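Journal club prep — side note

Before the paper discussion, L.F. wants everyone to see what a predicted structure for a comparable chain looks like in token form. Sequence:
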Amino acid sequence: MPSPQELAAVDDFRFTHRMPTRAAAVRELLKLGLSSAGMAEGDDAKSSNYGVFDRGPASHSGGNGS
């Protein structure tokens, strides 16, 4: 959960940019953050590229396990 200070920053961004919801502001902030980190939209990056999920050879992504 975001801290009260983080929520206030999101809400400030939201109202400054006249966004309809907090969720819309969070999505826009995520896009801005990802693009500033060099992750352009449509890069097809997966969480497994960053060690978030460590799927074995029999994963859902084409392994031969059932």
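L.F.'s comment for the group: The two ends are 36 Å apart (CA to CA). Keep this in mind when we get to the figures.
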